[in-house]
TrEMBL record:
HAMAP family: IspG. Its EC number is 1.17.7.3. One of its GO terms (molecular function) is iron ion binding. Belongs to the IspG family. This is 4-hydroxy-3-methylbut-2-en-1-yl diphosphate synthase (flavodoxin). It comes from Dehalogenimonas formicexedens. Its cofactor is [4Fe-4S] cluster.
Length: 346
């Protein structure tokens, strides 16, 4: 059962309130370079990204958001730190959402100006708390997850005192157990939608695992309304990883799923090579097809019977199957061609 949250509208995309869990990413271009940023956003949208965030380091970047927003096929969120004037400029430029930490914007009057502008244009605000950027003097005697929650709740109360409730919350840390504890705690305190992620997760080799463990554990408990996998990589890898996490929990169905055996001494064909070739082929497909590449009759059509199409590779020949039913026998040299054709037909 998913946690019940209120819904917020980010540029036409609903987050929370039982809406599908959305997949987000962040541009890695210089926001001031409008053509490059727009090009990356369009690439990400093509990969399935539903909401994009852009860093706003200065006034020039804030102004660039005006053209970026006009050309973006998906909602744009401005990521603001410290300078409330950048938040005001981003709102004026037409962004669909803000990611700020009200605590580092400064005086209450500055926060009030941002909130009033956001309220006027119905721009949601994400309160983004990162474990690594909490002030050392803030509740040093408490565990990290408690400090994160206390910081976020203080900012929630500040926005609520200004009669603003278009709020989304994130509580990210590199430490997975602390992140889990923080989200679990705050999920019992408020009904605002939660943005899930593990911050500074690393390169794909380790970052995807860390993110899958942290994000996946919370989603499995019904916690979370939108996600971002943070990787030191092309942002399209973040989007792909996000959907794989959602697909593994049957929360979203987008794009292909490859089922493949790990291979063993029974394997008498290049299953690894074939699986990689099929995975590359499927990158251009966005329909939810499940494809199996199996190494022998032991774990062939039987264990992969729920796959839409698949092949069980034997010595010199293999069995092409569809939903567990044998279609025909294929010579080893034609494995890739036969499975590719079957995928195309499906």
């Amino acid at each position: 059962m998913r946690r019940k949250t209120r819904a917020i509208n980010i540029g036409g995309v609903l987050v929370g309130g039982g809406a599908p869990i959305t997949v987000q990413s962040m541009t890695k271009t210089d926001t001031r370079d409008v053509p490059s940023t727009v090009a990356q956003i369009k690439e990400l949208a093509g990969a399935g990204c539903e909401i994009i965030r852009c860093g706003v380091p200065d006034a020039q970047a804030a102004e660039a958001l005006r053209d970026i927003k006009k050309q973006s096929p998906i909602p744009v969120i401005a990521d603001i730190h410290f300078d409330y004037r950048l938040a005001l400029a981003a709102i004026a430029a037409g962004v669909d959402g803000l990611r700020i930490n009200p605590g580092n914007i400064g005086e209450a009057d500055r926060v009030k100006q941002v909130v009033e502008a956001a309220k006027e244009r119905q721009v949601p605000i994400r309160i983004g708390v990162n474990g690594g950027s909490l002030p050392a003097e803030f509740e040093p005697e408490k565990p990290l997850h408690q400090r994160m929650v206390d910081s976020a709740m203080g900012q929630v109360r500040l926005l609520e005192s200004l009669d603003f409730n278009l709020i989304k919350i994130s509580l990210k840390a590199f430490d997975v157990p602390e992140t889990l504890a923080a989200y679990r705690m705050i999920s019992k305190m408020v009904d605002y939608p939660l943005h899930l992620g593990i911050t500074e997760a690393g390169t794909p080799k380790t970052g995807i695992i860390r993110s899958a463990v942290g994000i996946g554990a919370l989603l499995a408990e019904g916690i979370g309304d939108t996600i971002r996998v943070s990787l030191t990589a092309d942002p399209r890898e973040e989007v792909a990883a996000g959907y794989e996490i959602l697909k593994s929990l049957d929360l979203r169905k987008r794009g292909p799923t490859v089922v493949s055996c790990p291979s063993c001494s029974r394997t008498e064909a290049d299953v690894v090579g074939l699986a990689e070739m099929i995975s590359d082929l499927l990158l251009s497909i966005d329909k939810p097809i499940k494809v199996a590449v199996m190494g022998c009759a032991v774990n062939g059509p039987g264990e992969a019977k729920d796959a839409d199409v698949g092949i069980a590779c034997g010595k010199g020949q293999g069995i092409l199957f569809r939903r567990g039913e044998k279609v025909r026998v294929v010579a080893e040299a034609g494995y890739f061609e036969a499975l590719s054709k079957e995928i195309e037909n499906f």
